[in-house]
From TrEMBL:
GO cellular component terms, A-Z: protein-DNA complex
Family as reported in the entry's similarity comment: Belongs to the LysR transcriptional regulatory family.
Pfam families tied to this protein: HTH_1, LysR_substrate
Any one GO molecular function term: DNA binding
Domain HTH lysR-type: 5-62
InterPro entries hit by this protein: LysR_HTH_N (IPR000847), LysR_subst-bd (IPR005119), WH-like_DNA-bd_sf (IPR036388), WH_DNA-bd_sf (IPR036390)
Gene3D superfamilies attached to this UniProt entry: Periplasmic binding protein-like II, Winged helix-like DNA-binding domain superfamily/Winged helix DNA-binding domain
Swiss-Prot/TrEMBL keywords: DNA-binding, Transcription, Transcription regulation
Organism for this UniProt entry: Hyunsoonleella flava
Name of the protein this chain belongs to: LysR family transcriptional regulator
Biological classification of the source: Bacteria, Pseudomonadati, Bacteroidota, Flavobacteriia, Flavobacteriales
């Protein structure tokens, strides 16, 4: 490879590969379009590889371009992480850990883990984002996050997992609903109600497990709304748009306008798992995993 190629050439290439449009990529990079085109041409010439197919105004990646995009996306992200980690060390920090999580993990699991970890490691920066299950897996595969907390049963082979919570299910009813803990016998009492459930995109395996609860009681529910946020479920239930079923870890006595009934007699449970990429080289990750 020519020693004239620099890191910026790879970043230029990635911008065009992601946009598939030279003008948009140039705007994103804050350089001129002719200048960007020259840099990409130079890169192709130095590598001896055609990276893009150009047809009139349409741009497409060649097979070599697709491969280079996938590999560079991964390795430049790792390079950015290495540099950022070095900056944190310079600032007196041991490093940074990026966490993704579904909402229920923030009720108790993550706060408990962070408090425990920070007692011995007060000099670590935590970056936390609430992200749905599938996007967490994508984030782990792309090394955009270090650890995820998900409700998924099927994971890619490169993702390792460890259960951190086995959760019961609870009914969510409007506060004024005639059924309460004293009068509730089983979920078949509610077969004529409309249900508000987590969208299957949140987790297909979780959705199937909830449907199995209904099947076990001899009916399939009328699903009026689907969402990925517990707060939306609670607001809809409070306003009598339907009732719901959620993991017990999402319940709280401080939420007004609704009530919870634990379904402790059913066999179904939902697992919250901590997940990470087996090739993640963040030096903070292993010490965090040692907590659990």
């Amino acid at each position: 490879m020519s020693n004239q190629l620099e890191l910026r050439h790879f970043r230029y290439f990635l911008a065009v590969a992601e946009e598939l449009h030279f003008r948009k990529a140039a705007e994103r990079l804050y350089i001129s379009q002719p200048g960007l085109s020259r840099q990409i041409k130079q890169m192709e010439g130095d590598l001896g590889i055609q990276l893009f197919e150009r047809h009139n105004r349409k741009v497409a990646l060649t097979k070599a371009g697709v491969y280079l995009k996938n590999e560079l996306s991964l390795h430049l992200k790792q390079l950015d992480d290495i540099v950022n980690h070095a900056k944190l060390l310079h600032d007196g920090k041991r490093g940074q850990l990026k966490l993704g999580y579904v909402g229920s993990a923030m009720q108790q699991v993550i706060p408990d883990l962070l408090l425990k970890y920070e007692k011995e490691h007060p000099d670590v920066v935590f970056n936390l984002k609430e992200i749905d299950n599938q996007k967490q897996i994508e984030g782990l595969l792309n090394f955009k996050i270090d650890i995820g907390f998900v409700r998924l049963e099927h994971l890619p082979s490169t993702i390792k997992s460890q259960p951190v919570l086995c959760d019961a299910f609870c009914l969510v009813l409007p506060e004024n609903h005639p059924i309460n803990n004293a009068t509730f016998k089983n979920i078949a009492q509610l077969k004529d109600e409309s249900f508000i459930l987590f969208d299957p995109e949140y987790s297909a395996s979780y959705y199937d497990k909830v449907l199995q609860i209904f099947k076990d009681h001899g009916f399939m529910p009328t699903v009026s709304h689907l969402t990925i946020h517990a707060s939306s479920i609670y607001k809809l239930v409070e306003n009598n748009f339907g009732i719901s079923i959620v993991p017990k870890s999402l319940t709280s006595s401080h939420i007004k306008g609704i009530k919870f009934i634990e379904l402790h007699k059913i066999p179904q449970r939902t697992e919250l798992s901590m997940v990470w990429h087996k090739d993640n080289r963040n030096p903070i990750l292993m010490s965090f995993l040692d907590l659990t």
